[in-house]
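Help wanted!
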Amino acid sequence: MKNNYNIIIAGIGGQGVVTASNILSNGLASLGYDVKTSETYGMAQRGGSVYTHLRFGKKIWSPLIEKGDGDIILGFELIEALRYKNYLKSDGTIIVNKHLVSINESDSIDNYIKMLESIKNLKIIDCENLYKNQLNCRYYNIVLLGVMLKYLGFESSKWEEIIKKMSKQQYVEKNIEAFKLGMNY
Amino acid sequence: MKLMLGNEALAQGAFEAGCKILSAYPGTPSTEIAEYFSHFEGTYSEWAPNEKVALEMAAGASIAGVRSLTAMKQVGLNVAADPLFNMSYVGINAGLVIITADDPGTHSSQTEQDNRLYSISSKLPLIEPSNSQECLDYIKEAFVISEEFNTPVIIRTTTRLSHSKSIVNTRPKESIETKPYIRQAERVLSPNLSKIKRGQIEERLKSLTHYSNSSFMNVAEINNKSIGIVASGVSFQYAKEIFRENASYLKLGFTFPFPDKKIKDFAEKVEKLIVIEETEPFLENAIKSMGINCIGKDKLPPYGELSPEVIRLNILGESIQSKNEEKLPIRKPTLCPGCPHAPLFYVTRQYKNVISSGDIGCYSLGGYDPLNALDTIICMGASISTGTGMKKAQMFLNKKQNIFAFIGDSTFFHSGITGLINVVYNNSPIITFILDNSITSMTGFQDNPGSGKVLMGTTADKIHIERIVLGCGIKEENLYIIDPYDLKKTKEVIDEVLEKNEPVVIISRRECVLNKKASRNSYAFIDNNCINCKKCLSIGCPAILNTNLGIKIDSDICINCGVCSQVCTSNAIKSEVLVYEK
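Answered by r_m:
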């Protein structure tokens, strides 16, 4: 693992961007990394764009990721993931749920998938098709978190502990299930 | 060790410093400070009706002998400016700290305002933390400074400090004695006394300058001497990220009075001085007035939020961005599905020859696409008072307009009442709509005098808006209470009041849909009768979607308020009962 990692988590209010970034940031801090996050509040309820800048490593100064310095975009929705494309390094990664919440009449999934073609490291996970019989869509954020943690080379058991600790009682079981699905993607 | 928001760290630090009292008014990005502080045992916190009351409350508590705190967003300090300036003369007893949470780049504000400038004219010391640990450490020092120098202290944060998390080491709560109360004649301000106090304030500034020049919050770090960066707040962190060891730094945390000696020493050690700060050239101007040359807003943008890439581009002329920004549609903020404000504006904007004076809250969104139901939004409480001015102007104009004013419940308590008094006292027969959803919603569902609960969670007697309205002198027959979901009745009432030439208040009352804990049991859908007239789209409800398969209702978020079915011209909108809750 290199010195610093810069991750942008992006989605729409209600998709669990803040939840995912809480689990990730607190988990990383408990593993001994220096962590800084920048979060957005207020647009969450009103179906607006929500993003978190999350940075971890040995020593982090700026809470904001510099444009062009992003390692990973973790996207819960296609348009929101694309919105931060210009933050990515040239060899950066996008891990995104194949989910579109359209803004304009003309929006189509294919259009946005096409815009992702230039990304060298790309994982598009079709959560709806893969997991709709097992999981409510509100857990897809944890599935994607699992995919990303596996990609970063983290150990599954450590993170299961972290997720157990950080989840509300009624969500623990489903969160662990979602996380395992992501890790095994 | 804990990852904390800057706001949480401020609350934690105040608590550790023995601060026991907080009074505040919600305002992004300051709101969480009060919310976190309210959970500490052995303390008292409250939502005040507005920031002036909040600061005065905290000042009173400080004078009585208890360390106190108030917090607000940048425009809130404008409301609290009267007590801010005068408390500089009155002095304090136990420490008094005032937090101003500024918003460079206007993420959630109508204006961009650098409140550090207040410290110059109010003659109050100013502290700028740059990460969450400093939020905790510096607020503790703020209380010490406040008591040592007999002055309120201002702490200034920005969004990327308030709403960023970083690692904090907390400490045990200090056991701080409260101060005994002893009457002091000089707390009773008068013109003659103030002539003397003015001189004392100048002496105080001299002592504070001495403190500033030796404060642990102002630190020089000498590395590469070709560039010397002077920075405060989170801008320091951006600078450190970009320049690393390739520059020397003068990190300023106690920024007013300016640490003139420290700045001079640093300037002598480095070749080129660059000042990095948001948003006004506050430090830069001070440095230049000392006769020291520096680069600042001549290179960096004079407004807007700073960020690592902005600094790199404007100072170094470089960019590491490899991809261009994708041209993507913006998700505009909308009112929620079933919001009671939407149908009210849907009706009111149909009236011609009306000037609609708006205000600040969720209902501000009625002024944007697609409702476009407002002519002005100025500042908190301005709707009614501005409306009275618009009305009086009609006397001198040929083409006469009716005047509607729109204000929320919390905003009305905040600063609308005095406007309504002006309506009656100076006879401006405008139609005032009070949008009562019984909560302060835009900032995150905080309680207010009409909601029946206080910040610390206990119940409170509701203050009834209609009684205030009658108390202001509105006649009983000119006070209406409507359910905004009933479009027909709303229009009937407005038609009726337009015939009157007297001040009228219409309370549009329905609980905020998000605040209701009731589960949904039905939703609406559009059937084959739809003729695609698109009238339902003009309500602005995010559950009504214009897809390439026609107009559809998103059953996941529709709450079946029934408004769109009233608007529909072809009886195409029906409701479906939910078999199970998704």
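OP: Thanks! One thing I noticed: Chain B touches chain A through 51 residues (CB under 8 Å).
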